[in-house]
């Protein structure tokens, strides 16, 4: 093989192979990754850096040079950003849902459209709920119709102002909330202005559309209330223009590929920015007109028209969710011959989570704030749409707990039977003293196989969206929940009130849990290892639906890895990429970015990898079998994947190779990638040992003999190309 002629400044290649290790989610210390007492950073920064052993050669076992990439601080970085998880979690879920859409069919584009419209609805509902507190509860009720508890009944002298001035001034709270959302969803690279943080043009367009829609909805709330007491030409014109802006935002997202296609990129960017500027100008004009209009306002217990707007927003998200479920069910979710979630429900399942959580948070915010301030005394409580939403949340949680418990019990027998078959093949002869150890191994494998039931469990949860849809339909009729349940089921009003209070308390408990998780994740390593998994996985996917979702740390990690790999191949004979768990996904994406001359000197070793077991099956729009085969082809199938039956996360990529399985097709190089590791290697202690080999499960095991054998094999294949 001809080598590239050294250019100016090039150094001759060292005759060794670099073993570059990338850890999984929830972070890891470089000393642990490298199994070295002292390490030094050789590239990167404090959030994501490359480390080697403190000694100058950085040498490791098997004649390789060890290096580790630590990216664990990229997803979060600060306690404040982690606490933002409470507010950004629904947006993050709606963003992840896009990548769970089925592929290879023309209807997949409509799934993206519906996911983006649902994401826009989440932003709208967020603004509507903040407006419910600022405008309906504070400006209208506490300072006018129904005085709140002291000291909220005066609000720094606002009680003496005209109602229009109160509304205009307190409308600044929702506007500030929009600004906070935009700030939380913006990744700043810091003083070094790291160029590796990619900024997607799509996110800029989506951000302009969402900000415009949020401002337009706020204008509609104010102008609807103003026109209820008498319309004027100015208020009518502004209301019509604000509605037109909202429709324009929907239209930009509703046309498949409108904001994605390169041919329309410049037009879409200009249109999105123009809509945003127009919405901002209309907001200024609306505040001026509302504040300066001295005419009498319609006397009412609540802000006129607010309940109807909240009801339309809540009902709209349920309609979009049903449409999304229908589209993905129509396309049976077959991806590259592999089954995703039943019926391709992945996108609908995550969307259902996002919708339910957003509705509950919105209703809880309005409900709890009203109870705290005493603003709902004597007028029947908060707006009806929020009362129905809280009731639906309570019923949803109760039904979900019962169904999930039933699913766990039903699946237990099958999981135990499958685990017993695996251990029977691995250990055909079991001494009496090893029976207990065999029982523990079987139990561990049965627990690990619950991952295979996640699809059915998620589909069951998605079916519970019927509860939310039913309550939204009933709530849109304007019927009071206490009255309706008494007429239909003969239940006392106290039963419904118990459901409302239960939903409120459940939501408060959820918020406290999330907030506590954000705090303790940075104070307790054990807590972060478990809570951080959800955050690290959720913030991995590029933002293709909601621009206020947390930025994807892959925007930096993947280019940074690709750049470092390119540098190392110029200095060493080859680079062996070793990715554990989620680290294998980062490396797979990095391989796809490498130029041909670099890929010739790269090999890949994955272990505990969820590339197929979770990602290719749950996120076929991002990682699927076609993409995985392309990764193998780009490294010329210098790829080994180690997996264990006791691992609840990782698994095989192309073939399981369990005892008794048919042999792989010798003509297909993908069949040689996977290597199953029996776990434990034996049920009894080895000669000279006091204890039996431990169950490894999802443990990395870089020092295990099987891992080192795989490293030696791939390193020799790299050296053979030099």
TrEMBL record:
Region entry Disordered, spans: 655-704
SUPFAM superfamilies: alpha/beta-Hydrolases (SSF53474)
Top-level lineage group: Bacteria
Transmembrane segments: 79-98, 110-135, 167-185, 206-225, 237-258, 270-291, 303-331, 343-368, 388-410, 453-475, 495-522
InterPro entries: AB_hydrolase_fold
Keywords attached to this entry: Membrane, Transmembrane, Transmembrane helix
Keyword Membrane attached: yes
Protein name: Integral membrane protein
Organism (species): Micromonospora ureilytica
């Amino acid at each position: 093989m001809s080598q590239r002629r050294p250019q100016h400044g090039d150094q001759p290649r060292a005759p060794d192979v670099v073993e570059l290790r990338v850890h999984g989610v929830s972070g890891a210390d470089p000393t642990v990754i490298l199994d070295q007492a002292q390490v030094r950073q050789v590239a990167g920064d404090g959030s994501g850096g490359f480390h080697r052993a403190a000694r100058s050669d950085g040498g490791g076992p098997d004649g390789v040079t060890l290096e580790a990439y630590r990216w664990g601080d990229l997803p979060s970085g600060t306690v404040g950003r982690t606490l933002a998880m409470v507010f950004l979690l629904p947006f993050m879920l709606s963003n992840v849902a896009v990548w769970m859409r089925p592929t290879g069919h023309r209807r997949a584009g409509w799934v993206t459209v519906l996911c983006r419209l649902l994401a826009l609805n989440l932003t709208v509902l967020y603004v509507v709920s903040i407006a419910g507190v600022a405008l309906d509860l504070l400006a209208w009720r506490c300072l006018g119709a129904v005085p709140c508890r002291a000291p909220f009944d005066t609000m720094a002298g606002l009680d003496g102002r005209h109602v229009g001035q109160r509304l205009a001034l307190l409308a600044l709270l929702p506007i500030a909330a929009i600004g906070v959302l935009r700030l939380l969803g913006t990744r700043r690279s810091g003083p070094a202005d790291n160029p590796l943080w990619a900024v997607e043009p799509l996110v800029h367009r989506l951000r302009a559309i969402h900000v415009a829609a949020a401002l337009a909805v706020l204008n509609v709330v104010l102008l609807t209330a103003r026109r209820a007491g008498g319309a004027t030409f100015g208020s009518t014109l502004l209301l019509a223009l604000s509605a037109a802006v909202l429709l324009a935002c929907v239209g930009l997202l509703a046309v498949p590929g409108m904001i994605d296609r390169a041919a329309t990129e410049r037009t879409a960017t200009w249109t999105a920015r123009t809509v945003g500027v127009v919405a901002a100008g209309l907001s200024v004009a609306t505040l001026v007109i509302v504040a300066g209009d001295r005419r009498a306002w319609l006397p009412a217990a609540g802000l006129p028209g607010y309940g109807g707007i909240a009801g339309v927003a809540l009902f709209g998200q349920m309609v979009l969710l049903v449409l999304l479920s229908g589209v993905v069910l129509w396309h049976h979710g077959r991806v590259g011959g592999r089954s995703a979630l039943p019926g391709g429900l992945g996108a609908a399942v995550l969307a259902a989570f996002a919708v339910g959580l957003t509705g509950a948070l919105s209703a809880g915010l309005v409900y709890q704030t009203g109870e705290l301030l005493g603003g709902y005394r004597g007028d029947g409580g908060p707006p009806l749409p929020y009362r129905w939403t809280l009731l639906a949340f309570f019923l949803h949680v109760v039904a979900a707990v019962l169904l999930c418990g039933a699913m766990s019990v039903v699946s237990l027998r099958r999981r135990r039977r499958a685990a017993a078959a695996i251990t029977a093949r691995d250990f055909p002869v079991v001494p009496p003293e090893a029976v207990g150890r065999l029982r523990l191994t079987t139990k561990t494998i049965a627990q690990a196989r619950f991952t295979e039931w996640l699809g059915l469990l998620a589909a069951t949860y998605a079916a519970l969206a019927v509860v939310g849809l039913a309550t939204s339909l009933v709530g849109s009729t304007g019927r009071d929940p206490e009255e309706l349940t008494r007429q239909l089921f003969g239940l006392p009003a106290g039963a419904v009130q118990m459901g409302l209070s239960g939903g409120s308390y459940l939501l408060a408990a959820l918020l406290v849990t999330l907030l506590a998780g954000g705090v303790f994740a940075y104070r307790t390593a054990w807590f972060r290892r478990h809570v951080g998994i959800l955050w690290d996985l959720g913030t991995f996917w590029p933002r293709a639906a909601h621009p206020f979702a947390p930025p994807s740390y892959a925007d930096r990690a993947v280019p940074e890895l690709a750049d470092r790999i390119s540098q190392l191949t110029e200095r060493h004979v080859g680079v062996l990429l070793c990715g554990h768990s989620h680290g294998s996904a980062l490396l797979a994406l990095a391989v796809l970015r490498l130029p041909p001359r670099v890929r010739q000197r790269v090999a890949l070793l994955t272990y505990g990898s969820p590339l197929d077991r979770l990602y290719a099956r749950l996120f076929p729009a991002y990682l699927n079998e076609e993409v995985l085969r392309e990764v193998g082809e780009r490294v010329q199938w210098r790829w080994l994947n180690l997996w264990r039956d006791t691992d609840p996360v990782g698994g095989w990529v192309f073939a399981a190779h369990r005892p008794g399985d048919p042999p792989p097709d010798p003509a297909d190089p993908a069949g040689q990638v996977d290597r199953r590791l029996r776990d434990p290697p034996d049920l009894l202690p080895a000669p000279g040992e006091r204890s039996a080999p431990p169950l490894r499960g999802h443990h990395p095991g870089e020092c295990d003999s099987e891992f080192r054998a795989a490293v030696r094999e791939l390193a020799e294949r790299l050296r053979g190309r030099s």
